[in-house]
Design goal:
single chain; 85 residues; mainly alpha; 3 helices; 73% helix
Length: 85
Amino acid sequence: MENPFEPNPESLYSYANLKTRMLKRLQAARVHDQIFQVVQQAYENALGEENVVLSRPERQRMLSQILKQVLDDMVKKLDKNKGAA
């Protein structure tokens, strides 16, 4: 007889199963593309406002570095909020 209180990762209601389903939904909604587009548009606007001229490789390299920093900052903010909950 199975223990009804034993964690079962296959259960429809398990944390792992819910997390997997939510991830799939976010991936299907292409949230990562939306986040990228928001950061890219803000970056392009900022370059335009500053009248900065960069080569294409320089623009891409800087965008990559800035995007990584933005995502790192988001994770840190999430971790800080997790501690407050």
